[in-house]
Automatic annotation (TrEMBL):
Organism: Aquibium carbonis
Residue span(s) of domain Ketoreductase: 13-194
Protein name: SDR family oxidoreductase
GO function terms (MF aspect): oxidoreductase activity, acting on the CH-OH group of donors, NAD or NADP as acceptor
Entry similarity comment: Belongs to the short-chain dehydrogenases/reductases (SDR) family.
Keyword tRNA-binding: no
């Protein structure tokens, strides 16, 4: 991964990323790590996460901290956040990235499915914020970045619980920005378009679907996970010190 821009204030920063072992999250972990940050990430994917840590240590000589936890378990999430702070110091940057865009039909959704889907895609973001804000308040600064999606903006019909959660992330972001701004803590969101992770390519990408989507974009490119790193680094750094309560859309111009 090559990121041409260097943010000096991120060197040595304590960064916590949810879902940081695969997909977009793995690119975010690597991006912050290569800025010189002390990165801890939470994930349930054990093998992929350990492989990522091993590769980064081989390539950079420094370790990232993998914390295995199921984000549906709030006690486990809080314990992981506490371990990140114990190892790397109070969190300066929180990236709420973890999500799961499982397709589902309206008639098939049960209350249990709904609750679990919301737990994966929305609920954990609030409780991750709750876990790290005492340290941010004490420091008088911090940056929180919540990942939403353009799926709810374009009326994506294949996953209504997911789009409800992702719309909720924007509301959560704005509410948290208002509550935490007086403490010097900024809260913003990133809304990716169709990012072609390995999961997307394996499950849902077809030549016709991809062509139709790219045709709707202003930029005729395939959006890769690495394309989310630059925007996230910007929102984490002092380069965006006057930005909060905003949603940064990164979709090659399809919305």
């Amino acid at each position: 991964m090559t990121i041409d821009v260097r943010y000096p204030d991120l060197e040595g920063a304590s960064v916590l990323i949810t879902g940081g072992g695969t997909g977009i999250g793995a690119c975010l972990t690597e991006g912050f790590h290569r800025q010189g940050a002390r990165v801890a990430f939470i994930d349930i994917a054990d093998r992929a996460s350990r492989d990522l840590c091993r590769r980064l240590e081989e390539e950079t000589g420094r370790e990232a901290l993998f914390l295995h936890a199921d984000l549906r378990d709030i006690d486990a999430l809080k314990a992981a956040a506490a371990m990140a702070e114990h190892q790397n110091g109070p969190v300066d940057v929180l990236v709420n990235n973890a999500a799961l865009d499982t397709r589902h039909a309206i008639e098939e959704v049960t209350p249990d499915f709904w609750d679990e889907n919301q737990a994966i895609n929305l609920r954990h973001q609030f409780f991750a914020v709750q876990a790290v804000t005492p340290g941010m308040k004490a420091a008088g600064k911090g940056s929180i970045i919540n990942f939403t999606s353009t799926a709810f903006m374009i009326n994506g019909g294949g996953f209504p619980s997911y789009t409800a959660a992702k719309g909720g992330v924007v509301g959560l972001t704005k509410g948290l920005a208002g509550a935490l701004g007086p403490f010097g803590i900024r809260v913003n969101a990133i809304a990716p378009g169709w990012v072609l992770t390995e999961r997307q390519r394996a499950l849902w990408v077809t030549p016709d679907a991809l062509k139709a989507h790219v045709d709707r974009q202003c930029l005729k490119i395939e959006i890769e996970p690495e394309d989310m790193v630059g925007p996230c680094l910007f929102l984490a750094s002092n380069a965006s010190r006057a930005m909060t309560a905003q949603t940064l859309i990164v979709d090659a111009g399809s919305v």
